[in-house]
Input
Amino acid sequence: MRKTIALLLVFLVPLAIGYLLVFTKTPEPSKLDLLKASFAAKHKPGTDHSLFPELQVKFARPQDITNTCIKCHNERHKEVMQTTHWRWLVEEYMDGKGIVSLGKRNGLNNHCISISSSEAACTRCHIGYGWENQDFDFTKAENIDCIACHDNTGTYEKLANGAGYPKPELDLTTIARSVGLPKNENCGPCHFDGGGGNNSKHGDLETALYATDRAVDVHLGKNGGKMNCADCHTAKNHQIKGRLYTVSSMDRNRLHCEDCHTNTPHDNGIINEHTTKVACQTCHIPYYAKVNKTKVYWDWSKAGKLKNGEPYKEYDDENNYTYLSEKGSFIWKKKLKPEYTWFNGTATHFMLGDKIDTVPLPLNHLGGNFEDLKAKIYPVKIMRTNQPYDPVLHQLVNPKLWDKDKGKKAFWRDFDWNTAIDSGMKYVGLPWSGKYDFVETEMNWLLNHMVSPKEESLKCIDCHTRQDSRIASITDVYLPGRDYNKTVDTIGTIFIFISLIGVFVNLSLRIFYCKIKKQIFGGSCE
Output
């Protein structure tokens, strides 16, 4: 018996192994598996800057670091000086205006309105040193701040209201020896904290993303993609991919989900068909401001109140300021449903000197509609603000907001709208009637981050429903399940009825044929 079992094992085991090798196939990796694998290998630096003799000195000025960088990385400064991160301005074509120079340098927004006449406060987020006023020299290479993007110590920090200079107590020598590829911590201080605090502007970019999980963002989550900002926002010659449509108007240098995920990322063909008119973000960012609140309303008309002659602050239960004497009152919210709009990659912008012709006033109108072949439905955060304008000339005004000293006509110091507006409008060379009031404005901020896991993406019923459809604001397209049109619904009902009749007729004919076949030939109908 034992010999028999042994003989069977000798023959059966190799046979079983051979069967598994021949007939069992390893499952093909999914598109998503391949995509994850492509980002799994992280960059390993091939150069140790701490060993360079040029960096074994004590740097007294940050410009000395830049000059040292340029000695080895020659010509790179010329690339940087062509970027929007440096120029804060780019030539764009805009419908109705032609070719214009547009950017943070001259644009209007409904957060702090404009940088003009308050540059030293705003250029904390500029990749340069010393931009205090209109006299800043954009051709002077040594004023490029290389370490703002390339510091890998995590200690680099710009001085508040310091015209882009770093804090004086920093160890610049150690920082210079520790440079490398940009990390999230290099991008975050400006893109997470811009506009007056964490998550103030964007709603989908905040400090929680430094260390988060996939429930908040599947790409940056430590148990998700574990990616860095630069994995998607790649750069060539320092030109970083991606556009912010609060300060740009043309469909160029854009960053698309499809660049990695393709136009057909789903196993379901019907869902893939949606990608022709629905942006990936629309379904995969069901909520934004998931961790901390974002600013959704700003009322400048309430600014200027004092207590005992001094400015004061008020906060909500999560330590977000709800009132500042300098800026007025605010509303903050979190875990928000986006609003939705058509977008074809282009935008128009309200600029200083333009006439107000509608209220609320859109400061950036995103282009596109259903008939536009390039347009898709996108999720947006709409920032709403009550900001100062000239009721006589019907245009927005540019108040001077910041100065380091009182008595220099800056509103944040002197709390006088008349002198602040007068000073700011003279600075930009535009007329002011001497009158001011406040007008409601709106600004669209496209949502691209805080992508949820696929299990939490929107379902069909979220949009295709009569009650509370996510895209109720998209009214130039007939949406089944949401909309009712007597003619369309009647035609649809007729087609369904005809289809059912066809099914019934087909079934009847098959049964009739089966009976005739059995009578003539006998046997079954199979």
About this structure: The chain has a mean pLDDT of 92. DSSP finds 17 helices and 14 strands in the chain. Residues 392 and 433 are 6 Å apart (CA to CA).
